[in-house]
Sequence to fold (359 residues):
Amino acid sequence: MDKTLRIVVKVGSNVLTRSDGSPDITIMSGIVDQIAELRREGHQVILVSSGAVACGRSMVRPSKRLDSAGQRQLFSAVGQIKLMTTYLSLFGGHGIPVGQVLTQKENFGSRLSYLNQRSCMEVMLDNGVIPIVNENDTASMTELMFTDNDELSGLIAAMMDADQLIILSNIDGIYTGSPDDPASRLIPVVGLGEDLSDHIVTTKSGFGRGGMGTKYGIARKLSEEGVKVIIANGRRQGILTGLVNRPGETPHTEFVPSDAPVSNIKRWIAHSASFAKGRLTVKDDAAALLRSDRAVSLLPVGISSVDGEWEEGDIVNIYAPDGSKIGVGRASADSAATLAQIGQHGGRPIVHYDYLFLE
Fold:
């Protein structure tokens, strides 16, 4: 491949760990070797790695019964050290420095925090350091946690303008039915807008928090934003180099990316619905305009109700009168000022088109 790529690789716990939760050094070493090879070919790689909680579970036994949050905090605090020490040693064998990036969901809700994270990882990549990203489970509150690291990897891929997101699971991709059913077949390519909901098996297994439903949702959204997403089996030998250099020879499911450019701020907004501080309901004519092919902003005259409290610059969800979701946007006025302007003509948009993502 002639073009150099920026690739986000997400590796799940079920790939990295053995049945007892201990790190599978053979698998980890193979993945590191392949990332090193991709680096030698000129590609940039960001690694989103699960495995800290699973590693910690194999290393410490709680002295008393803990709830799920307490277990996660304990196991991740212990396991993250083990995980990073292993990566440090493996990448060190290739002379490649690595850096740890621990983040939380709320770090993506603020545009300033979002840009600070982006800047940090850009500096690392510019200086030949591979960022290894994981959720900071020791500090994340349950209601503010990522669904799993699939969701986190999607946010990272969008934030870093990645060319590809490769999600490594313990199966080859999305099947027409259960992967355990001999009659099921692997779906190799998913076109833009193609709906695979009927084929998704929502069960999960082993140490991971997420399942194929989350992977599918993230893949669809990112592909619409121009990022190629691949779901593949991380336990297959040579999977990463095969996907990049010999994709026709490697089993996987690929989501075809749109060729329409999406600005970085639109990407941020597109992935910010779960950080929304409030809700705007619009009138029928405003809903029709927003859903049309025209590039329109949401003006005060088109708003029928305001729910929640937010500050200027916060994210808000936008709904039609029938309760259907229209999109998400960045508010140009706080909730009190927005409420005071409802139904008024003139004035600046409450959500400008440049800061609006339609679903």
Notes: The two ends are 34 Å apart (CA to CA). The first strand starts at residue 6 and ends at 11.
